[in-house]
């Protein structure tokens, strides 16, 4: 059952070649004495047009049985296509029908379906133009991420999914347990006795692999994670998922400047790779979903990113002849309206803002000499807003211990993290990128649930 | 802080080049009027030897402060090395000490530590020779897996980690919950009311992405998963993890023959890639850990895999002049002793066994015409045993429904899986490979906990 992929045939094959393809029928048209089928195998947006004539064995019964959604293997000869929109078509010599699709019950008939409806049939929606294109772009972007880091000697490290650390974001953690929930063991304080659970203590799903990635960077210099992370956040928005994939590079002997350089090179690389390998899909998004996605991609690829400090950003926002919903003053967290004003209207290109007030940032970010700001960075892009957040990490043991205590956390819970500062500590830095957010921005898709095969959101874990 | 990697310097750099490196000191030796440091940056097993003389600023205080484990950045000139074992060494002109490591408390002194001990300091063990080599091989293998599939047009698909399907292996599932365990809501039957949980129903950690990978294959033809999977199995063995990474390709328009072809090409590719990119590390394993690992790798790379049916395998085992602990008869599941006899002693090369009795295999495997066996395959390798398990999937709706009922499962729980057979069904096949098992076999490491950065096992979820 050796088949060739339709994308490759459309691009490279020549008339007179004999080929066999396998795929699903998108449409069938019967004319007098012959018929057309558009066949798609998921390798490209474009279908291969198949021409059938009555010489094809079982012509009449095939035409009766084949409807939208049927699966076929077709062997035939490629011929130049007289129709417009395609270079070649396939003149069938034999057609095998593997699976019918009853037009009365097959949900994907040839009409537009809402994305909401398609989510209820996520097991079939990959066969539509839009979701097909999304999944190809998603793969191309994921592959570009690996190539970017591997070409630069970074190790892909698998940080744990199940973790006993609850120090980041306690309220938003899913609990992982093997206890019998109907008969939960109690301890003397009438709490749950997690010492009897599988891991001997309470365990959660990870919200970030960063702390463990730091461990690995302090042995291998340059590493990255690319794995699933979780938030038990009851957010029913178009930008939140309970389960999503995150990319987190971490570099030893690297400061905030190096971190910015890497983030800029990284974003340019993945946007360019996707344009190179999925141009047809990206043009589809630009035409049908959001007519700014190509412009946004080109903007990221072709411009040197702006770089300003948070303090400079606040000054620019204060000078803006614009009334913001959230008033601007030093110390606030930048809101989406501020970020978009800076990137879209003022700079008109991607912008890295650095050195945020320490009070709005995480405990592990390196304290600057001013004692007020930390070596954090956010990368803002036009039409997108924040796409990357990162920082140089605090490598000084005493400063880190102080920060941990100030945040009301217990240093002993992070004994191993502190050990990294105790033994051979080095300046190091990294950043995080939400993979689905990037795919959403690339494609212009309105809802993040449509850029992951099987979205997990409040009250929804189907398939 | 632009540094070059030591692996690249040792391989390519020439005498007289000025370079800057960053890394951790493995050993320091003081001689009369000069000193040596072996510096490692995780990019290779080999260290770069650094020569210091009193002209280096702060020579005396540096030598006092630098001990095993200290982190340094060194700038200097490469010179031919008079010592044996290295082509070049670095004559330092300046040394920056970033982090000391107190010899009284730093756990990784220059002596051999047991792997058990190293697991208790998993945040530092990547700085040892063995764990360093393991993590480089692990990365090389992971990268080879992506390249293999991407070169062949397979899409990397992210199947869900959190799932509401409990149809495979109910007893071994971790529960994922957001309920307050101290006040669990009850339903009318006094069970737990999971409708109030985050996902509105009981949710688990996935044990396999296969069923969802089938969804994607039936839209994109060729796909693969590479992600974490989970078993809440109380197995304290050297081959079990509660959290491990799995690779699961799935191909539409593919039968058991195509499945075998892919598995064989895949194994050859990843073993060859690792030998090509990590030969120094592999030689270390062969010398220090298991002196058969190179031979095993070559055996996999250079031999055409044997292919026999389960029935033939039983006949061969019955003919063997050998007493097995588990008696051989048609219908039994092959035990490790049987698999190793076949692959190691009889065939002396990798071997694919196909068409197992249906009663010992999963419900989704395609029923053969004999009505007794299914189109399953196991790939067995010398010294390793089963390394891959796969099958052609049952694509016939009525046969699949029958099998599901026979197994005591409810077809309505798998409505979407059955839909794939209802609408445009096609022959399809795939297999699964436990990533850590492969890394363990490649490296010869005795315990699987030493081939993943942060192992999760019963009573252990540290770091």
UniProtKB/TrEMBL annotation, chains A, B:
Q: What is the top EC class of this enzyme, as a single word?
A: ligase
Q: Extract one GO BP annotation from the record.
A: asparaginyl-tRNA aminoacylation
Q: What does the entry list under GO cellular component?
A: cytoplasm
**Keywords from the UniProt entry:** Aminoacyl-tRNA synthetase, ATP-binding, Cytoplasm, Ligase, Nucleotide-binding, Protein biosynthesis
Cite the PROSITE patterns for this sequence.
AA_TRNA_LIGASE_II
Where would you find this protein in the cell? Cytoplasm
Q: List the EC numbers from the record.
A: 6.1.1.22
Kindly report the protein's main subcellular placement as a broad class. Answer: cytoplasm
- Family classification: Belongs to the class-II aminoacyl-tRNA synthetase family.
Q: What is this protein called?
A: Asparagine--tRNA ligase
Q: Which species is listed as the source? A: Gloeothece verrucosa (strain PCC 7822)
